[in-house]
UniProtKB/TrEMBL annotation, chain A:
<keyword id="KW-0812">Transmembrane</keyword>
<feature type="transmembrane region" description="Helical">
    <location>
        <begin position="80"/>
        <end position="107"/>
    </location>
</feature>
<keyword id="KW-1133">Transmembrane helix</keyword>
<feature type="transmembrane region" description="Helical">
    <location>
        <begin position="6"/>
        <end position="29"/>
    </location>
</feature>
<keyword id="KW-0472">Membrane</keyword>
<feature type="transmembrane region" description="Helical">
    <location>
        <begin position="41"/>
        <end position="60"/>
    </location>
</feature>
<dbReference type="Pfam" id="PF05437">
    <property type="entry name" value="AzlD"/>
</dbReference>
<dbReference type="InterPro" id="IPR008407">
    <property type="entry name" value="Brnchd-chn_aa_trnsp_AzlD"/>
</dbReference>
<protein>
    <submittedName>
        <fullName>AzlD domain-containing protein</fullName>
    </submittedName>
</protein>
From TrEMBL, chain B:
<dbReference type="InterPro" id="IPR011606">
    <property type="entry name" value="Brnchd-chn_aa_trnsp_permease"/>
</dbReference>
<comment type="similarity">
    <text>Belongs to the AzlC family.</text>
</comment>
<feature type="transmembrane region" description="Helical">
    <location>
        <begin position="44"/>
        <end position="63"/>
    </location>
</feature>
<keyword id="KW-0812">Transmembrane</keyword>
<feature type="transmembrane region" description="Helical">
    <location>
        <begin position="14"/>
        <end position="32"/>
    </location>
</feature>
<keyword id="KW-0472">Membrane</keyword>
<protein>
    <submittedName>
        <fullName>Branched-chain amino acid ABC transporter permease</fullName>
    </submittedName>
</protein>
<dbReference type="GO" id="GO:0005886">
    <property type="term" value="C:plasma membrane"/>
</dbReference>
<keyword id="KW-1133">Transmembrane helix</keyword>
């Protein structure tokens, strides 16, 4: 039951950030209005960050040269993406992903 | 869904959402455990930060040993859409006290927001504190308990890497990305795919010069900028 102090710092500070995002608009109520460009910018955040996080697991970094591919992760991504298209169910997607990499680890 | 704004109908209408939560929260707990968080840390994260996909991002960044500021900036960006949701909900509760408004905002999530927007169609465009509060609390309690359960479940599995459990996080990002692409009607599909393609290329090329923690944020901000330019340029 370890509680790492850095993890605790992250939990408390992210708590404050998410809480502020939720509550400040309620406090400012109707006076608060975001510009159209900011709204549009924020709309792209989810797809950009999810794609970036996904790519980070597919590439192995060697500073100064192009990254190598993490072949098991690339291969496991294929059935995972397929299960997303077919089921649209997050739990199924996670299970398919885990099983795919598990099977690949046995073969490779 | 009915026009009643009492606790009972709130509970009844939130239940289907809550079932959706359980699977994701359990998956989150297992994933977080596999990425080195303890059960108590998982429970605290869900109890305090309480932010669905943001929690997956936090676990992923912690596993990369990212610095506090890059974690906070990522969390702010991923969570920024909540600002929009609160802004939309707030006017419907402007008759309630400030304390009640703050409390509703505190536990507002994607799911209860979506639910409340749906509910408006049945109540003559009205919402109240009781209905929203019960709906929020049901979702919150389920999320916290289920993610703790997931952590306990993850604890029972020895040597999780061998079974590919480390991939749960990546699978979750793939799933969230796909679900986001098909659900978001405010951005055209072609534009979304273009932005995703740009992010892939920038990540690949960026890896040669920028360490990955910083690269993630830079590429995200650039990707969004490209999206905005293309969206408003094309229109």
């Amino acid at each position: 039951m370890a509680l790492n102090s850095y993890v605790l710092l992250v939990i408390v500070s992210t708590c404050l950030v998410t809480w502020a995002s939720r509550v400040i608009p309620f406090i400012l109520l109707k006076r608060f209005k975001l510009s159209k460009l900011v709204v549009s910018f924020l709309g792209f955040v989810p797809i950009c960050i999810m794609t970036a996080l996904w790519m980070q697991s597919l590439f192995v970094q060697h500073l100064g040269q192009l990254p190598d591919l993490n072949v098991p992760n690339v291969l496991a991504s294929i059935p995972t993406l397929l299960s997303a298209v077919l089921t649209k169910n997050l739990l199924v997607i996670v299970i398919v992903g885990v099983v795919s990499l598990g099977v690949l680890n046995l073969i490779l | 869904m009915t026009g009643d704004l009492d606790a009972k109908s709130a509970l009844r209408e939130t239940l289907p959402t809550v079932f959706g939560y359980i699977g994701i929260a359990v998956a989150f707990g297992i994933t977080a455990k596999a990425n080195g968080l303890s059960i108590i840390e998982i429970t605290l994260l869900s109890l305090l930060t309480y932010a669905g996909s943001v929690e997956f991002v936090i676990v992923s960044l912690l596993a990369m040993h990212a610095g506090i500021w890059s974690i906070l900036l990522s969390v702010f960006l991923v969570n920024a859409r909540v600002i929009l949701m609160s802004t939309v909900v707030a006017p419907y509760l402007s008759d309630e006290t400030m304390a009640k408004n703050i409390w509703i905002g505190t536990l507002l999530t994607d799911e209860t927001f979506a639910l409340s927007m749906n509910k408006l169609n049945y109540t003559g465009r009205k919402l109240n504190f009781t209905w929203f509060n019960v709906s929020n609390l049901a979702a919150y309690a389920t999320w916290v308990v289920s993610s703790a359960l997931g952590g306990i479940l993850g604890n029972l599995i020895n040597n999780p890497e061998r079974y590919g459990i480390g991939f749960a996080l990546v699978a979750m990002f793939i799933g969230l990305l796909y679900l986001q692409v098909i659900a978001d009607r405010t951005i055209k599909l072609n534009l979304q795919l273009t932005v995703i393609g740009a992010v892939v290329i920038m990540m690949y090329l960026g890896m040669t010069v920028i360490p990955k923690n910083g690269l993630l944020l830079i590429v995200t901000l650039l990707g969004c900028s490209i999206g905005v330019v293309l969206k408003h340029g094309i229109k």
